[in-house]
Amino acid sequence: MSSTADVLIIGSGIVGSAAAYYLAKKGKSVTVLEAADAVGNGGSSRNGGGVRQSGRDPRELPLVMWGIQNLWPALAQELDTNVEYVQKGNLRLGKTEAHLKTLQKLTDQAVACGLDVRMIDGDEVRAINPYLSQEVIGASWCPTDGHANPLTTTLGYYKKARALGARFITGEPVRSLQKRRGRICAAVTPSGIYEAEQILVAAGCETRELTLPLGVDVPMRKKKSECLVTEAEPPLFAQMLGTAEADFYGHQTAHGSFVFGGSTGLEPFGLTDEAFPASTSLSAPCTCRGIMKYFPALADAKIVRTWAGWTDASADGIPVLDEADGVPGLYLACGFSGHGFGIGPAAAYSLAERMTGGTPPVDLSPFRCTRFRAKI
Ligand SMILES: Cc1cc2nc3c(=O)[nH]c(=O)nc-3n(C[C@H](O)[C@H](O)[C@H](O)COP(=O)(O)OP(=O)(O)OC[C@H]3O[C@@H](n4cnc5c(N)ncnc54)[C@H](O)[C@@H]3O)c2cc1C
């Protein structure tokens, strides 16, 4: 079988699905190849839903700020889908002077990039969120941060892209990419060859093994992240929360459950086949102990499920959004390093602009793929 499209996208996470939508909207014929049996089966259906600017690497800030100002507020309307976007701010909490120092540094960096974020004391923190314990002595407060539902957002992009003619083929793992006369020309799967003028690889960590044979190497490694969800509780607060130490983050969803994620250091020590990202029995209790110190009110909340997902951690913690050097027509969107949901729509929009000869809304040079090369 040989099948052609203007653009082939590998991976149907939020980035691949959103890129399919924005490219189809510009009149491109698009085919999306997804290895799993369902769309969005990677990090995009497993993440904590944070749509935040605060605490980010300054190189990422212009792009994520643009997305939060220009895409997220109208996304539900644009996609005809309830993406459950709530823009009620992010409190990044501190309990010690060392925490406040960390938060102050992040805040200063973000303010220098034009973000509305400031340090507040414990009383102001509890005025915003009265459920926080007296142990919290301060926080950074970014009123324009928020959260959304990763499942419905990814599905919304998928449905809307399909409505514009994009074709999604699941259970179709790409094994290799092909060049013709130096340009990218096709992706090979067990069932055939898909030809296209342009190929966007948005396959998370697997991007590396697909592009490496073409001489394009993005240093990334697979890193496991875990989340948990509680039973539905009465509405308590609408902000996104995080901590200076990044030991937990989370929010209350539209139907009342709390979704929390956290880094415990135990994630790599699963018992099961690491091809499938299973949660450990130890991580959730560790995360919960942290949460209870900040939120005594949640001490009795019952956890109904835990899960894990892979993130594509790049060597310098920010993504690659670029045409591959030396392989015209091959584009990469990878290395989101555990925070690609909030920035995903803006990343996909920008690449769609670039791939169609338009001008991305912000400078994409911090995300070039050649940045890892040895400097001469
Ligand atoms: C537990 C957890 C919590 C997180 N919390 C947050 C958060 O709160 N906020 C935030 O911004 N980000 C968060 N993230 C990160 C975020 O989920 C990811 O950065 C984002 O979803 C990446 O989207 P993507 O489309 O690039 O990749 P993915 O969603 O991983 O999609 C890649 C797709 O490519 C497919 N694929 C792989 N190889 C092939 C192949 N050879 N052929 C065809 N298809 C292939 C995969 O099956 C997958 O569907 C979290 C991640 C995890 C795991």
TrEMBL record:
Bilayer-crossing regions: 7-24
Positions of the FAD dependent oxidoreductase domain: 6-354
Top-level class of the enzyme under EC nomenclature: oxidoreductase
Pfam families: DAO
SUPFAM superfamilies in the record: FAD/NAD(P)-binding domain
Top-rank taxon: Bacteria
Any one of the GO CC terms: cytoplasm
Name recorded for this polypeptide: FAD-binding oxidoreductase
